[in-house]
């Protein structure tokens, strides 16, 4: 290639180098194909420990991105043309160069795997999925929704529908998060972090929002499992810690706190942490509600609460309703909606809270008055009072 176009190529490479510096968590691979006559010479580079492991002509080297691109430019002088493919999560950049021109194209990454037409499967919902079969195949396989040959597993169809609906329910809230900075999402009681991986995929590869994720769980085993899945997917913008939620102290701004089916008062720990760190969004899908059931005692309802099933259902409603009221007192706009059908589980509510206003002391007084009338001392109030003292 002539020196003039190699200079142009170097200009494009400066852009790639800056992109790598800003988005190295998203980088997947870089490949180069040189052409001389009818012969092709291929090289491939993958991320390893902040550098690129590059294999060309049977020789592997560990290089910085700057040095790799400089080497490619130097090598280009020996060939008639080249095609460089820079792949990151959700995006593929292709640079082609010869003696006539240098061009760059950018497009969304697409799955090249053949899959069945799942839209014809009656057990899938008749709607436009946000986590689409095809493009999201590596994710769906890693979290066990899809088989290796690209089919949604029959016993995972319900879970697939649920995780996609979860994203749909909070999509508008996600759009309110800052777009000019890297956002941080904290998953409290993350378990194997399936929903966190789904949100990571959706924000990064669909919405093109820069984000980091932190997963907390008290179990070392599930944290190891989450780390393993993150490594498999190449999701380097995730970190996990085996720690009690109430002991966690963030070292950065938290934009969103999420909690899915954290058992009993673990949901309250997550809500209290979200309030304490002034999270922009708090999303919780509570699980069991044992605490208030054993506490509350309201004389006007005695003739109703003598029926155990009704006392339990009232306790469920009171628990989540009072959680919503506490969030309102802390300046959050709150909505409580059905997450999934009550036919699947009665624990099917989602609490969505967006920080919009200053704290409202009158709401807090209303909350405390309700506690007094119910003879109850909810965990959320206790956790917040402990944090205020600390």
TrEMBL record:
<dbReference type="InterPro" id="IPR029063">
    <property type="entry name" value="SAM-dependent_MTases_sf"/>
</dbReference>
<dbReference type="Pfam" id="PF13679">
    <property type="entry name" value="Methyltransf_32"/>
</dbReference>
<dbReference type="GO" id="GO:0032259">
    <property type="term" value="P:methylation"/>
</dbReference>
<keyword id="KW-0489">Methyltransferase</keyword>
<dbReference type="GO" id="GO:0008168">
    <property type="term" value="F:methyltransferase activity"/>
</dbReference>
<feature type="domain" description="Methyltransferase">
    <location>
        <begin position="158"/>
        <end position="294"/>
    </location>
</feature>
<keyword id="KW-0808">Transferase</keyword>
<protein>
    <submittedName>
        <fullName>SAM-dependent methyltransferase</fullName>
    </submittedName>
</protein>
<dbReference type="InterPro" id="IPR025714">
    <property type="entry name" value="Methyltranfer_dom"/>
</dbReference>
